Amino acid sequence: MPTETIFSKIINREIPADIVYEDDLSLAFRDVNPQAPVHILVIPKQPIPMVADAVAADQSLLGHLLLVAAQIAKAEGLAKGFRLVINNGEDGGQSVPHLHVHILGGRSMQWPPG
What is the pTM of this model? Predict the structure, then answer.
C-alpha cells in the first residue's frame, strides 16, 4: 500500500485545499506556498511517488496531467505563458512523494530555473 501523503489526504478530503479542478484521474489545487502569482499543483489520484517511478502503463495518465495543466493555465488567464515543473527526488526539489505538476504563471519566468 502506498505511503499516505498530504496529497492523498487532500484527495480524500481529510484536509482542506483550494481545489480548482477535479476529474476521475486528477485533482488540481492552489499551492499553499506560492512561488508565483499563479501556482497550482496538478496531481494524479492514483499515487505515483515520483516521475522516475512511472511505468509504461502510466503513459496515458501522465499525458492527461499535462493536458489538464494546459486547460487550467488557460482558465487562469495565462495566455502570455506559464511554466510546468515536475520535481523528481530529493535533489530535484521534490518535497512530497506523490507525483505533481506545478503550474507557475502570472509573471515572467527566469532561466535557468534553479
Answer: 0.94
What are the Cα distances from residue 6, in Å, to 16, 80, 99?
A: 10, 32, 12
Q: Give the count of domains, the chain.
A: 1
* DSSP structure string for 47-106: --S-GGG--GGGHHHHHHHHHHHHHHHHHTT-TT-EEEE---STTTT--SSS--EEEEES
Go through 25-48 and write b for each residue having 16 or more CB atoms within 10 A of its CB, e for each that does not. ebbbbebeeeebebbbbbbbeebb
> CATH number of the domain that 48 lies in?
3.30.428.10
Return the percentage of the chain with pLDDT > 90, whole number: 93
User: Hunting for cell 492552489 — which residue is that?
Assistant: 30
Full residue range of the structural domain in which residue 20 is found: 6-105
Specify whether the CB–CB gap between 21 and 28 falls below 8 A: yes
Task: Return the active site residues.
Answer: 100
What is the distance, to the nearest Å, from the Cα of residue 23 to the centroid of all Cα atoms in its chain?
A: 14
